[in-house]
């Protein structure tokens, strides 16, 4: 990931292009619309897990949200997100290098946690993927307030699989609509987007 974000950082410095938006623009719009529809207060604390280039938080800031934190274990990703933030003039976003599977104690008390593809990436780790997924859920429980919301977008997991992964400590609130496709007479989604609520 470091190498990928170093390339994106160089591209941004050369051209001003912030790079890849995971799952495309509509995935960001989907999350922001849900937050607006639910009337999530603009000062709610939001954590973007595996923030990458930070573009999602920039869009949230443009929508009026003021208490935004992005973490990524790649220092290059955080450098890139800082540059994107500066270019967009968004001073109310905090970025920090942080490994979600080995969190520092001061990260806690968030009302909303967002994941676009980070759980997918962790799940693909060839070393102890099951243990890493369990640690992810433990980390999520430690950063998200009881009754807080967890919005996850995944291209690797079905709704049923995600319900199983997050059954301890979370309940499903709703599934967000994502593009559908038809193959061999069956209809499916290439992306799953779910909203969970942390149990009390």
Describe the protein's architecture and organization.
There is one protein chain. The protein is of the alpha/beta class and 200 residues long. The chain has one domain. Helices cover 38% and strands 28% of the residues. It has seven helices and nine strands. A seven-stranded mixed sheet has the order 3-2-1-4-5-9-6, with helices on both faces. The chain has a two-stranded antiparallel sheet with strand order 7-8. It starts with a helix and ends with a strand.
Q: Strands of the biggest beta sheet: in what spatial order?
A: 3-2-1-4-5-9-6
User: Which structural class is indicated by helix and strand composition?
Assistant: alpha/beta
- Could you tell me the number of beta strands? 9
- Weakly predicted, low-confidence segments: none
Note the gap between the termini. Answer: 35 Å
- In quaternary terms, these chains amount to single chain
- The domain tally reads 1
Q: Strand-and-helix sequence, N→C? A: HHEHEHEEHHEHEEEE
Helix content: 25-40%
The coarse silhouette is globular
Q: Outline the biggest β-sheet.
A: 7 strands, mixed
Determine the mean pLDDT. Answer: 88
Q: Number of helix segments?
A: 7
Structural Rg: 16 Å
Strand % is 25-35%
